[in-house]
Design goal:
Layout (H helix, E strand, L loop, with lengths): L4 E6 L3 H11 L4 E7 L3 H11 L3 E3 L2 H5 L6 E4 L6 H10 L3 E5 L6 H14 L3 E4 L6 H11 L6 E10 L13 H4 L3 H4 L1 H11 L5 E9 L31 E8 L4 E7 L8 E9 L3 E7 L6 E8 L2 E6 L8 H14 L8 H19 L3 E2 L2
Parallel strand pairs: 1-2, 1-4, 2-3, 4-5, 5-6, 7-10
Antiparallel strand pairs: 7-11, 8-9, 8-15, 9-10, 11-12, 12-13, 13-14
The structure holds nicotinamide-adenine-dinucleotide.
Length: about 350
């Protein structure tokens, strides 16, 4: 039996807790320490999972003797500094999405991973869902033929993660729903389409509801700084993007935290191909969404419901990161795919500001 892999987690909010639980459930992993500003959460998590060190400052976590890998689950503006410091100490890093505030910062993280010869993974848990994986398998079996158009969305009526929290401040978050939930949508949509390069984007962003105080999540008042009347909101509450893809296909992405639409939270995707179409709709974080394939049988429309399992989420992301680190086969695990998504998101914001299509080289 080899020695356990000694890991740490920075951040004890929702995301950090997913990483902590996932590591704690894995054999051959020792959760050496956690860091976060909330002392009560930290000590409770440390007691629950038998974690030796719980510290406030991320710098103190990275300095722990014997630490080999770290998850970074903190506000987005801290991803790059913490990940780069960790990589420079020779640690492997699993960062939360989005990889960084923007593509330029993301590139510095990729450079640091390559220079250190260490793994830099980014948590894109939604593509691990069973319904998305089932749809991908159907596409790979050729059931849709050549896919040429997709529309993918994540829309909330009142789901701003607390007006005034770090999420609604562009210098801390990098943007609003496009960079927060839209980046998941972009990740799973491009995955389903076979990862074509995005050639150009034409985007619009709006902030008309959030900046007037409408749309803060009723269930979510836990984010720091939220809830006060003068709260800062300088990000979008809705983004729409039309993307031209390598090979001639196109993709429409919509992401909202606030919009006068049906109540609740919904994400999904529709795809059109030469042999068939598909639709996946996930309402209110259902573990398995409604997945249908459409086609034509000698002139008659066909619709088939596909069954899917729950699939993986953070536990799958964390387990794969641990397996990769242990395998010693780190080629290509340098965060560059997530950095490319960050460049695409940058181009979307540039397009929205300039009110024109932006080419991506
Ligand atoms: N993959 C997903 O599905 C998913 C879901 C939610 C959030 N996220 C991402 O996870 C990250 C964190 O989001 P969250 O919702 O958990 O945020 P949060 O505000 O609930 O928690 C942030 C945590 O970071 C800690 N922190 C802040 N500054 C720190 C510092 N200087 N040193 C140590 N700890 C510090 C806070 O104490 C807190 O524990 C974000 O990048 C977000 O985009 C991903």
């Amino acid at each position: 039996m080899s020695a356990p892999l000694r890991v740490g987690v920075v951040g004890v909010g929702w995301a950090g807790q997913q990483h902590i639980k996932a590591y704690a459930a894995l054999d051959g992993v020792e959760l050496l320490g956690i860091a976060g500003l909330e002392e009560a959460e930290r000590t409770a998590l440390a007691a629950e999972h038998g974690i030796e060190h719980d510290v406030a400052r991320w710098e103190d976590l990275l300095a722990l003797d014997g630490l080999e890998a770290v998850s970074v689950a903190v506000p987005t503006f801290l991803h790059a500094p913490i990940a780069i410091a960790a990589l420079e100490r020779g640690l492997h890093v699993l960062s939360e999405k989005p990889i960084a505030l923007n593509g330029t910062e993301a590139a510095t993280m990729v450079d640091a991973a390559r220079a250190a010869g260490r793994v830099l993974d980014v948590a894109f848990n939604h593509r691990r869902r069973g319904d998305i994986q089932r749809l991908k398998a159907a596409i790979d079996e050729g059931r849709l033929g050549q896919t040429y158009y997709a529309k993918a969305w994540w829309l909330r009526r009142t789901g701003i993660p607390t007006i005034g929290s770090w999420f609604t401040q562009s210098n801390l978050a990098g943007g609003g729903p496009l960079v927060d939930i839209g980046v998941h949508v972009l990740d799973y949509a491009l995955f389903l389409l076979g990862n074509p390069a995005v050639r150009s984007v034409s985007a619009s962003t709006y902030d008309l509801l959030g900046r007037n105080g409408f749309g803060s999540s009723p269930e979510d008042n836990t984010k720091s700084g939220g809830g006060n009347a003068d709260a800062k909101f300088d990000v979008e509450d809705l983004a729409t993007v039309f993307m031209r893809l390598e090979g001639g296909g196109t993709l429409l992405v919509e992401a909202s935290w606030a919009a006068h639409r049906a109540d609740g939270d919904q994400f999904g995707v529709t795809l059109y191909g030469t042999e068939g179409g598909a639709e996946l709709i996930v309402d209110d974080y259902a573990p398995v969404g409604s997945l249908k394939l459409f086609g034509d049988d000698a002139g008659t429309a066909t619709a088939q419901r596909l069954r899917a399992g729950v699939g993986g989420a953070h536990p799958a992301v964390v387990a794969e990161f641990v397996d990769t680190v242990r395998s010693g086969d780190w080629a290509g695990r340098d965060g560059s795919a997530a950095a490319q998504l960050a460049r695409i998101v940058d181009a979307c914001y540039e397009s929205a500001a300039a009110e024109r299509e932006i080419n991506i080289s």
